[in-house]
Amino acid sequence: MSRAPEPWPPVETDLPQRHADAPDPGTDLPPHYAHCFGCGDQAEDGLHLRATVGEGHTILSQFTVTEAHQGAPGLAHGGLLACAFDEALGTTVGNLLRSPAVTAKLETSFLRPVPVGTTLFIDAHLDGIAGRKIYVSADGRLDAPDGPIAVRARALFVLVDLSHFVTHGRKEDLVAVAKDPSLLSHRPFEINP
Ligand SMILES: CCCCCCCC(=O)SCCNC(=O)CCNC(=O)[C@H](O)C(C)(C)COP(=O)(O)OP(=O)(O)OC[C@H]1O[C@@H](n2cnc3c(N)ncnc32)[C@H](O)[C@@H]1OP(=O)(O)O
């Protein structure tokens, strides 16, 4: 497999417009859903990713690799790192565009091992929009915002209607959220099953 990067975004795009109600640069974002494996504070052994809005089209996220995240002894599992990027990229799309979207395609390049105890700093950037397709990418650096790059990712998100979540989500979880809206502590949209 070639290491030469393919053109990105792969199609002609426009620069996405930040939503007028997008949070300001410097804003620390609360978890979007308490049980989210990526950011939820009630997700035991989750990643507990934390995100802060950056300048322009960026959001900076970070999480610390724990023993629960191992693949090889003492090293983060690659699929779990991909999960962290899915979360960081999705947060970027959701908060800056404030429209529901889901991951359609996620590509990760693993450049360096990520040991347990490392904090990964993920700098995500909205790259382009073409109709419902949103292209977004991120670099993940070891232990500092300017540390060595360990993982790179790029993804296609597709804008969806709220009906996507209501139609496909497990009913008891949708009901739980309707009963206790604080489970969705930060939400770019409302869910009323
Ligand atoms: C704040 C929130 C943070 C959340 C972070 C976590 C985010 C997530 O993990 S979301 C969960 C994982 N993702 C999913 O479950 C999505 C499952 N997939 C789906 O539901 C559907 O396939 C979906 C919605 C992506 C697309 O279906 P549909 O709405 O019918 O649109 P469809 O017409 O097929 O695709 C729209 C466009 O995207 C393109 N596209 C869709 N999938 C892909 C793909 N895998 N690769 C390339 N292009 C694709 C299509 O070709 C089409 O392009 P064009 O407009 O040029 O014709």
From TrEMBL:
Provide the protein's localization.
Cell projection, Ruffle membrane; Cytoplasm; Membrane
Q: Which Pfam families match?
A: 4HBT (PF03061)
Q: Which residues form a coiled coil?
A: none
Q: What kind of membrane protein is this, topologically?
A: Peripheral membrane protein
> Which keywords belong to this entry?
Apoptosis, Cell membrane, Cell projection, Cytoplasm, Fatty acid metabolism, Hydrolase, Lipid metabolism, Membrane, Transit peptide
Which residues does the annotated region (Disordered) include? Answer: 1-27
**Family, as annotated:** Belongs to the THEM4/THEM5 thioesterase family.
- What this protein is called in its record is Acyl-coenzyme A thioesterase THEM4
